[in-house]
Amino acid sequence: MAGHKERTFIAVKPDGVQRGLIGSIVERFEQKGFHLVGMKFLQASEELLKQHYSELKDRPFYPGLVKYMSSGPVVAMVWEGLNVVKTGRVMLGETNPADSRPGTIRGDFCIQVGRNVVHGSDSVESAKREIGLWFKPEELVVYSSCAHDWLYGTN
Ligand code: IDP
Ligand code: MG
After folding, report:
1. What distance in angstroms lies between residue 90's CA and the mean position of ligand 2's atoms?
2. In this predicted model, what pLDDT tens digit does every residue of 88-142 receive, in sequence order?
3. Residues labelled catalytic
4. Which of 54, 76, 99, 113 has a CA positioned 20 to 30 A from the CA of residue 91?
5. 84-92 and 22-32 helices cross at what angle (nearest 10)?
6. Residue 101, CB half-sphere, CA atoms under 13 Å: how many?
7. Which of 35, 37, 44 is nearest to 75 (CA)?
C-alpha cells in the first residue's frame, strides 16, 4: 500500500504555459489515474531554478536553461501514485523531443531539447528534493480519491 504514496514533481515549463498546453499535460496525469496533491502557478526565481538544476551547473546549456525556466510562469505540481516517478518519466518521453515516441508529452507537443515543455523528477530521491524546494509541507493536500480502489483493485 505504501507504494501508492510515491510522489513526483512535475512542472509545465514556460513554453508549455505560453503554448496553451497546461490542460493537455495535466489531463494526461489525471487520466492515467495519478493523484494530484499540490499545484501552483508561479514565475520561479533564478535562485530557485539554480538550486533545482544544481546537478547540471557545469553543463554548457545551464545558464540558458535557468534563463528559459525563469522567463515566464510555470505550473508546479506534485502527483502521487504507484511508480509515479518512473511512469511519469515514461509519460514525458526522452529529454530530447526528437528521441521521444509519439504518445509521450514531449513526443507529441514539442520539437527542440531546449524547449521541451515539461519537467519530471528522475528518481524518488530527486522527487523528494524537488518537492521540498518548490512546496511548503502545508501546500500539499492530503485527501482521498473516490477512484483509488478502482485504480488499484482494492475494492
Ligand atoms: P530531463 O528534463 O529530461 O530530466 P536533464 O538532462 O535533467 O533532462 O536536463 C534538464 C533540462 O535541460 C532538459 O529538460 C532541457 O530543458 C535542458 N537540456 C538538456 N540538455 C540540453 C541541451 O543539450 N541543450 C539545451 N538544453 C538542454
Ligand atoms: Mg532531469
Report:
1. 13
2. 999 999 999 999 999 999 999 999 999 999 999 999 999 999 999 999 999 999 9
3. 119
4. 54
5. 140
6. 4
7. 44
Question: Sheet of 74-80: strands edge to edge?
Answer: 35-42, 74-80, 7-12, 118-120
Degrees (nearest 5) of the Cα angle 69, 70, 74? Answer: 70
CA angle, 83 then 103 then 101, to 5°? 95
Residue whose CB lies within 8 A of the most ligand 1 atoms, among 59, 67, 113, for a mutation test: 113
Which pLDDT belongs to residue 3?
A: 83
Give, for ligand 1, the residue of 52, 55, 62, 65 to mutate: max count of ligand atoms closer than 8 Å to Cβ: 65
| pLDDT per position as a tens digit, 33-63 | 999 999 999 999 999 999 999 999 999 999 9
Ligand 1 pocket by Cβ (under 6 Å): 56, 61, 65, 95, 113-114, 116, 119, 122
Element (H, E) at 1: none
Full-model pTM:
0.98
What's phi and psi for 88, nearest 5 deg? -60, -40
